[in-house]
Specification:
Layout (H helix, E strand, L loop, with lengths): L7 E8 L2 E9 L24 E9 L2 E10 L4 E4 L2 E4 L2 E2 L4 E4 L13 H13 L4 E4 L6 H10 L2 E4 L13 H7 L1
Parallel strand pairs: 8-9, 9-10
Antiparallel strand pairs: 1-2, 1-3, 3-4, 5-6, 6-7
Helix pairs in contact: 1-2
């Protein structure tokens, strides 16, 4: 395959169109790399810093393939009963979406729809959407990152395991 013939990978990290880190590394057998990000800006609802990582598979000087991924760097953890993002408490002000799309009967997968919906939420002072028993499409995650919305994605189905539930499933749902 194309990826097996690559002998190195080129990494380029940009923020707001400016290159902040660029390096070429020999192909790692396990596919794991560590990249330095000088003066890393963390994503938050007040400063949605979004990086774009471009990874190019190379054979010599020839590019075999390329993949771009947009993401925000953040540190999320629990501290007692508080949700902490980048060492600051998060106060969720949100709404519930229960997959009610009566005009189409299905959830839109266009980013423009989600950008509009999330911007309206922000205009009303909200920063959070609970996705009740569904996972929204990838476009919703991308839009949420851009507009600074926290998504609470839930599994469909039961949240109370039944008596005969497989132990691994029961431990996950508890």
């Amino acid at each position: 395959t194309r990826s097996e013939s690559a002998d190195r990978e080129r990494f380029s990290l940009t923020l707001d169109g400016e290159t902040v880190s660029e390096t070429v590394l020999p192909r790692a057998e396990n596919g794991e790399y560590r990249l330095s990000v000088p003066d890393c800006r963390l994503w938050s609802e007040f400063s949605p810093a979004l990086y774009t990582l471009c990874v190019t598979l190379c054979k010599g000087e020839t590019a075999l393939g390329e993949k771009n991924v947009r993401f925000g760097m953040r540190k999320l953890r629990a501290e007692g009963k508080k949700l902490m993002l980048n060492n600051s408490p998060v106060f969720l002000r949100g709404t519930l979406e229960g997959v009610a799309f009566p005009y189409t009967g299905y959830m839109p997968d266009e980013k423009a729809f989600w950008l509009r919906a999330f911007r309206i939420m922000r205009d009303y002072g909200l920063n959070h959407m609970r996705c009740h028993t569904f996972c929204p499409p990838e476009a919703a995650f991308a839009a949420a990152d851009e507009v600074s919305i926290y998504l609470q994605v839930e599994l469909p189905g039961t949240s109370c395991p039944v008596k005969d539930e497989a132990p691994i499933v029961a431990s996950f749902l508890m």
